[in-house]
Amino acid sequence: MIGGVILSVELAETVSEQVKGLSGRDNLAPDHGMLFVFDHPDYWGFWMTQMKFPLDIIWFSANRSTIFIKTNLEPCTPSSCPIYVPTSAALYVLEVNAGFVAAHNITIGTTFTYLSY
């Protein structure tokens, strides 16, 4: 749960799941997301390669507090594919549909909670 919203999330815990992420999919259902769970905090960079729809990406510290947010990220092209890197080390990263952050007032310091894992 984040911002009072219960999300159904897929976990990306292995390196192969993390590299693939949501690339190649046509869409993401409303109130769904992908939660990347890393084995240590770091400056994990994300890019929009092979994406077909825009995303909001939220980085969290080890205590599940939001530390960095990028919104309305459009799929990249071969000639322009920026990598988005947080300003602080993150342990978790959440990808959700573009507009989620604004719709649910997610800000720096917002935390998430596991309801089941």
How would you explain this protein's 3D organization?
The protein starts with 7 loop residues before the first strand and ends in a 14-residue tail after the last helix. A hairpin with a 5-residue loop joins strand 3 (55-60) and strand 4 (66-73). 9% of the residues lie in helices and 32% in strands. The chain has a single domain (8-103), classed as Sandwich (Jelly Rolls), CATH 2.60.120.1140. The protein is globular and about 35 Å long. By secondary structure, it is mainly beta. The chain has a five-stranded mixed beta sheet. The relative contact order is 0.27.
Q: What would CATH call the homologous superfamily?
A: Protein of unknown function DUF192
Which word captures the global form? globular
Order of strands in the sheet with the most strands? 1-2-5-3-4
The helix content, as a percent range, equals: under 10%
Keywords:
117 residues, mainly beta, Jelly Rolls, five-stranded mixed beta sheet, 2 helices, 5 strands, globular
Task: Write the SSE topology.
Elements: E1 8-12, H1 15-20, E2 32-42, E3 55-60, E4 66-73, E5 90-97, H2 100-103
Parallel strand pairs: 1-2
Antiparallel strand pairs: 2-5, 3-4, 3-5
Summary of the model, kept short:
The protein has 117 residues and is mostly beta strands. Helix content is 9%, strand content 32%. The chain is built from two helices and five strands.
